[in-house]
Amino acid sequence: MELKLPKKALVTGAAGFLGSHICRRLLAEGYEVTALDNLFTGTKDNILDLMDSKRFSFVLHDVTQPFWGRFDEIYNLACPASPIHYQHNPVETLKSSVLGIMNMLDLALKTKAKLLHTSTSEVYGDPLVHPQVESYWGNVNTIGVRSCYDEGKRCAETLLADYRREFGVDARMVRIFNTYGPNMHPKDGRVISNFIMQALANEDITLFGDGMQTRSFQYCDDLMDAMRRYMGLPRDVVDGFCARHGLGAPVINTGNPGEYTIRELAEETLRQIPESTSKIVYRPIPADDPKRRKPDITLAKELLGWEPKVPLKDGLAKTITYFKGLVK
Ligand code: NAD
Ligand code: UDP
User: Fold this and answer.
1) Does 195 reside within a domain?
2) Which ligand is nearest to the CA of 179?
3) Is 149 one of the annotated active-site residues of the chain?
4) Is the residue at 328 inside a domain?
5) Contacts of 159 (CB under 8 A, 6+ apart)
6) Which of 124, 149, 163, 219 is catalytic?
7) DSSP annotation of 128
């Protein structure tokens, strides 16, 4: 009888919010998972329960340094994602994106692994096209405070496209729109964790600007479904998709097209935590804060037969339950 060995996956940024979810998903599907993280914004708490599994191992490693191992699939998530964190150490942020993807692409090249890179809606900057389609090239400041993240992610996309064209690496990417859920760090600084933590502590809800800027919020489980479907596709299907759409590399938006003002988000958070005595207060808008953001997910629907299932109200309720558990 033929012995069937589990598929091997490498996840970078594995102790972070999304990294911990993809590790969990891969383990549940029978993979052997190597989790790599430098613990800059991630925490071992997110993956503590996975340590018991014989198919899971954690390596403290910085993706700016080369890494070696044989894997069937590589998921590249290592990079701080919250504006306060990526702006705290901007040069490291850029290095994590640019050197990180180069190291992972080199590894994929040498070992013939399939790679999925997590890009971002931030590549569209403060978009002049709405909703954002993959063919839109974006409106990004190269020298602003968000540029270390935006331009690092843009450069990573270019590297991925060129490793495919020049060396034939089987690499794909998702442009993720604001995603939230359990395992976000309570002090992460992004809007959903901030508002929930503030409401639970009866502190002021800090609304930046007039709160009329918009975002589209995707629940983490929906993103995991998209990522796994994408990696399950054979290479010729992905190549055919790129050719059909004139894309220089396989890239799809993954997000929930439901668009909300940040003020609506603050109000909904307070509605779901009625015991809170928090009041909304207005604070200055951060530099280069995008005014509108909403994904066009036509391509993801076509390629993956996927669309998000979890509305903001439901995802917010699950996330509130998670944060309540932390502050108990
Ligand atoms: P996160 O900050 O929770 O996780 C990032 C993880 O990467 C952390 O565990 C951190 O310690 C690790 N890391 C950072 N620099 C590293 C380095 N040099 N070497 C090794 N590990 C490093 O953020 P997240 O929301 O889970 O984001 C994961 C990925 O998804 C990021 O690449 C982010 O840009 C991308 N993304 C996320 C969102 C979102 O809304 N959550 C949106 C767009 C893109
Ligand atoms: N925001 C806010 N209050 C906060 C944190 C964020 O009003 O305490 C706003 C922020 O200005 C932006 C939106 O919420 O317009 C989303 O911010 P986040 O940092 O979550 O992600 P971004 O999409 O800006 O990267």
Assistant:
1) no
2) 1
3) yes
4) no
5) 98, 101, 102, 105
6) 149
7) S
